[in-house]
Known about the structure:
By secondary structure, the protein is of the alpha/beta class. It has a single domain, classed as Rossmann fold (3-Layer(aba) Sandwich). 38% of the residues lie in helices and 19% in strands. It has five helices and seven strands. Strand 2, helix 2 (49-59) and strand 3 (63-68) form a beta-alpha-beta unit.
Amino acid sequence: MEINRNMKIQIGVIGGREVPEELLEEARSAGRTVAQKGGILLCGGLGGVMEAACRGAREAGGLTVGILPGSIGSDANPYLDLIIPTGLGVARNAVLVQSCHGIVAVGGSYGTLSEIAFAMQLNIPLVAVRSWDPDGTVQTAGSGREAVERLYRILEERP
């Protein structure tokens, strides 16, 4: 997505629903940092990394958006401000990625891998924390905060 300098930056935080506690803390830190930088956090809207990132963003006064795979919002995590039920199943991963200026991947399984692949195909900046690197070119960070800060630097350097 092209950045209009008059709009807020939309950052996706992606990752699995079942991840170790330390990765949940990194996702929460990423979400908090997105909010502190004035960005809008987008995610898949469910639990695990998605919920932790939303929790961090909300704690810092940020806005959170969940793009859900199902057609009802009852599966949404409790830290979402805006719920978008798509009814698309895993195809919603493409919608989520296409809606972001940049992506932070924290851990994750095959759904996260598909989102990373979409980001790579669409040339959307991506920074990973203990996540997939399909071709050895994904930038990595040691923490959620570092990943968001690096992502913002990448976005600032883009024309």
